[in-house]
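Ticket opened by: R.M.
Priority: normal
Category: complex prediction / small molecule

The reporter submitted a protein together with zinc ion and asked that the result be attached to this ticket for the collaborator who will pick it up next week. Submitted input follows.
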Amino acid sequence: MQAQKILKKYFGYDKFRPMQEEVIKTVLAKKDCLVLMPTGGGKSITFQVPALIMSGLTIVLSPLIALMKDQVDSLKASGISAEYLNSSQTGKEQIAVENKLNTGEIKLLYISPERLLTENFYYILQELDVSLFAIDEAHCISQWGHDFRPEYTKLKFLKHYYPKVPIIALTATADKITARDIIKQLRIENPIKFVASFNRQNLSLNVLPGTGRMAKLLAFVKNRKGQSGIVYCLSRKSTEDVAAKLKAEGIDAAFYHAKLPRKKRSKVQEDFINDNIPIVCATIAFGMGIDKSNVRWVIHYNMPKNIENYYQEIGRSGRDGLRSDTLMFYSYRDVMVYRDFIEKNDDHTNKEVEIAKLKRMQELAEAQTCRRKILLSYFGEYLEEDCGNCDVCKNPPKHFDGTILAQKVLSAIYRLEEDVAMGLLIDFLRGSEKREILEKNYHKIKTHGAGREISYFDWQQILLQLLNQGYIEIAYDQKNKLKLTKASENVLFRKAKVKLVKSDEIKRKQDDRIKDAKPLSKTQQINNDLFERLRIVRKEFARRNNVAPYIISTDATLEELSIEKPFTEEALANISGMAEVRIKKYGNAYISEIINFVKEQDTEGKKIKGMTYLITYQYYKEGLTVDEISKKRNLKDVTIFSHLANAYTNGKDVDVFSLVSKPEMRKIYDLIKTIDDASSLKLIYERLNQEISYGKIRLAISYIEKLNIKP
Ligand code: ADP
Ligand code: ZN
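Result attached by the on-call engineer:
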């Protein structure tokens, strides 16, 4: 398929991620579609690849001016003609782009909605052959979304003016109400919907008690030297305090909050993007407008006020798909601060909902079951298995069979017709005869008192666990009444087993679960050192091109380079992210850094597995003789020959006949034909009267073997 070739050629990737290919097919069939995919899921590819296949122009609507430049820089670095138009440009720059549009040179144009719908641009647009409208951050069109932008509502005219041009709307907002609203607002009828999993398995989830958090934070950061990370704080003051404490420990960090002068804010942001400052301590305002793909960790110095925010903020790490760590400090005090804030502030029209959401956040923080399950269940996604990458999974509490208890709870909810909140349900289970129960005649229902022997506190813990495991739901819009779920039906009607944790174990002191980053193995350390050196090469390119380092290459690409250590351009092409243009521009610099590095390791006696023959080959290519190489590398001649043989077998350019003469080759060839075991060098050596060296024989055999394989 053509799309696959484009993916490889321009983006350097071998395979599409789940869903990308289907979306692309839909777009190419000129159908409208809505794509819900988490941050880092790979949304951009789904309109960029079609843009390159379709004949005309793709117009990308984006509300974030800073991101436009980033995306366009990145496309240009891949050799794709893209431009942007927004208020950050001078008049001259804008005219230059408009002229380019008229000549049809541009494949992708990024533009802000208000600009698109100006009168001036309306006339320009008339002349253009538009193949596709891509609406990025599409949730901005909805008042229900978290980031409503009035100018986005103008986009409803697109379908009116251009009924034949397909629209692809993209967002990382998962909720269904917003999705419905996007479709309605854009006036697209019957779009094809794509909903990807919001599980971001590469992010580890960790929660620690908040006591002594600064010391824990320091330990965490010291173990992740030089990595980019964000510390989210609740107050401006604490962003400054935390940054100061990090600095006092010799760790470079900046702070960021809304009260800083504008200039200072953009400076911090830029320094962070360009890998000049590794750590930013920030209020939640930070990170909205940046696309930095190599944020390696996020710490919540305080618990966020709801799960949406938590998901969004941890989601700013690991966009490149590499392992990233998140850590949240939790203390009951933080919860009280929020509660106070919500209750005292009259602007909060929906206090009940806010408090309910705060509670869910708190439950995630206190959970004794897989945190990712809780996180995803909040967004309506059900994980079959525990995730294995959260602190609870890594250090699980002991479970007991809680099926009977769960059945009691669920059948009580069932019999009470899903019309009770948690408190009353516990009273009911414990056989209370308080007025409310008697009035409603609940005491006559079969399961009344079915859990008399269990304390109120213990029931609370059990219910929370059932909630966290997705067996019940809380209907915030119906006075917090408890509802059954698909999973609970399995327990009630299909004998599914439920695992619970004893509540005394929950009360047990919550030990520090955070595991420091494990010390690296020797190979990992070597790869890591190379990674750091490649980072320096990348940074230099970034500086020269005036773009962010991750635009040149992502961390994922550098990591693969440091593990695979390609020595040649062909080998380079197998590295994910090394697209044609990038190989041309940066390939040589990466290769020579890798070669230098590997050679240095070699002279220091740290042989890198699988690399040794390549080093020999490298010296050979530089014109050294076998003798010289063997002296330099402190290896026997025969070893050098066998390295060269290996290189030859692997398709490297070795001039065999400059090392083995034609008559010698003839003799070896004739002999091999007559013997059974052609792999025994010793046998051949003896039969040829010890006249031809082992090394030469070894090389000749490789040559002959290759001759035989070739048709
Ligand atoms: P989103 O816009 O959904 O947050 P991006 O489009 O920025 O995500 O993609 C996130 C990262 O994943 C980028 O570094 C991108 O180059 C990479 N990526 C996208 N598609 C693929 C793929 N098929 N194979 C490998 N990497 C990919
Ligand atoms: Zn887990």
